[in-house]
Amino acid sequence: MRSHADRQPIIQFKLPRLQLVWRPWSAPEAKWRLRLIGICYKETPRRLFVFLSVRGLLLWSSGTALAAYLVGTAALAWIWGQNPYNHITYADLALPTRWRELRSKRGQGQIDEGIHELRSGNFSAGVMLLNHGLGEHPSDFRGRLVLSQVFINLGYLHRGQQVLEDGLGLGPPPKVYRESLLRLTNYLEDYERVLELTDRIEKTLPATDGATRRWVLTQRVAALEKLHRYDEIEKLRNAQIDSPSFAVEAAWARVQAARGRPEEALREIARDPGRFGVTADRCQLQLALAIAAHDPVTARAAIQAWIKEEPTKPEPRLAEIVALIQLGDATDARDRLQRFFLNFGSEKAAVVFAFRKFSELPDVRWLQAAHQEAVESGAMGVEARIPYVQGLLMAGKVAEARAEFDLVASLIEKAKVKDFGWAEGTRLLLDVITNDSPSNRSQLIDFFRGHRLTP
To answer: Which among 134, 159, 386, 451 could bridge 151 via Cys, Cβ 3.0 to 4.6 Å?
Structure first.
């Protein structure tokens, strides 16, 4: 009789065995699928052996991950590509070397979309997109210019200035950017800030950019003159004695006039006229200095030289009239006034410019004389009547200004001239002057709140 230990089961079942191999060739007896899994039977009774290729697993995992990555980036690129302002391409998403540019390109798209929204009249959405875009791509000078202009139009001049100023440290700004920033700062009469900005702008300029450096110097010397820092202008001139700047030389000449020494500047111009700019600018400067020095001979010579240089322009002819008035030659001044309207009466811009110049004179009779000559020569259009009314108001001729204003307002309404609110604002101002009641003042204040004066 057999013992219990000698007894064997009719069927024995062995669990499959899993083995890891580096590559399929390590188990050639197995039948491989996809070079990843191999199967074979060994031993007696048969036992299933499953071989898993580590190399195949790595290759298939990497391939699957890469395929998922490429498909995912393609889907994302397609979704973002539906936005017409998108700057991000498939290559930007797929290549890790371009990932650092994604934020900047996203900001560019938001800036483009914000500008479009502003042009479409959606100001809140446009400003929001511009702010977000500049947060992602702060060195976009075009976006900064547009956002600054929005703030300026809303009356937030200092905020618009700050937007432009924040961009100076992000690279060399373009010409229009520099000019806009300094023009706004000058408009705010913040001349100390102008000096700071010129220093910052100059540091960003290449050494070979001589034209821009001369422009920066012109802005600096103009700010120094406004601040009456005459000693610094003298130092600037002395530092550039071998390579003179027209702007510095002209400022130095005006400084001499302000200090009561215009004769010294006139002698310097006569000694070396080439240091003081082109003929027209030099003659204009020489004329102002001659009037300050009460030198009619030099003044007339400067006028004639200026007219000879620019015979068809109204500026030297008007300067001649003003100079003759300031020199006390009323007869010649009236004669030149008549000739001016005969020669330039058909040019609207010249007539408007003339009335603005005569409005600056302390004697309002010359403004009235210009009005008379313009009427007789047929040159008194709507555009010229507006500065005439303003000149009368500045001179205190309220009754005469009111009568002229009524005529101008009717002409503006009849001809449908775009006056940008001038007629309404002037009417409210005249109402306050003639009847300073709380209601009139309130209406005037409300008008100017809605019609902000911006540069």
So the answer is: 159
